[in-house]
Amino acid sequence: MVILVLGSIITSVRNARKEIVLSMAIVDANYETDTESLKKEILKAFARIDDKYKNEKYNIQIDTSPRSIESMENEAKLTVVMSKVSDTDVVVCNKTVYEKFAQENIFFDWEEIFDKDYQRYEPYMTDGIVDLSKFPKWREGNFTTYSPTYFCILKNSEHIEEVEIFLKYLMQNSM
User: Fold this and answer.
1) What pLDDT does residue 50 have?
2) What are the angstrom distances between the C-alpha of 51 and each of 12, 23, 144, 168?
3) Contacts for 84 with CB less than 8 Å, ≥ 6 apart
4) 105 Cβ neighbours under 8 A, 6+ residues apart
5) For 46, 84, 116, 138, which has the most beta carbons within 10 A of its beta carbon?
6) How far is Cα 21 from Cα 43, in angstroms, rounded to an integer?
7) Rounded distance, CA 75 to CA 143, Å?
8) Are strands 90-93 and 129-130 parallel, antiparallel or unpaired?
9) What is the pLDDT of residues 128-167, one digit of tens each?
């Protein structure tokens, strides 16, 4: 028992020292979502695209606690996740949540992000927004059960390059 607790503490300390290269919030995540596997897959994909990610000092942060069900607690959580002081880079959400927060102009426009590559991503979009439910890899992971599954970059994101790497990972074997 003591060894198990000590092992958990050591793992937590190691993870705390790692640099976060992508922070993602998944609103209404499937309760069976295996975030540890998703983190490992994303980091492997990053390493295949850029050697600097082969270093074990990097980590992905995934928050599956935000919920769209109306309650004061959920409303507060979503507001914090979407705020300018949040360290969240991207939010995965349904259309209702997107429309609610898009009015506040907190998301990047995908045309601005993709620029010349915009047409390449159009098959994976709904209403001009990247729709993760159109990526087989996302669907196979069973991370969300709604469609469209909007993928939104917050304007305060510090990891735009990593967001693009994540999308390239999702596109592998999708075309």
Assistant:
1) 81
2) 25, 20, 30, 15
3) 106, 155, 156
4) 155
5) 46
6) 9
7) 21
8) unpaired
9) 999 999 999 899 888 999 999 999 999 999 999 999 989 9
Q: Which two tokens stand for residue 159?
A: 């990891």
Range with the poorest average pLDDT among 15-19, 88-92, 129-133, 148-152: 15-19
Q: Which residues contact 150 (CB under 8 A, 6 or more apart)?
A: 91, 92, 93, 94, 95, 97, 98, 126, 129, 130, 131, 132
What is the rounded distance in angstroms from the CA atom of residue 149 to the CA atom of residue 132?
Answer: 5
Strand partners, 60: 22
Residues 97 and 2: their CA atoms lie apart, in Å, by 43
- 66-89 burial, b if ≥16 CB within 10 A, otherwise e? bbbeeeeebeebbeebbeeebebb
pLDDT per position as a tens digit, 23-79: 999 999 987 778 888 888 888 888 888 888 887 789 999 999 999 988 999 999 999
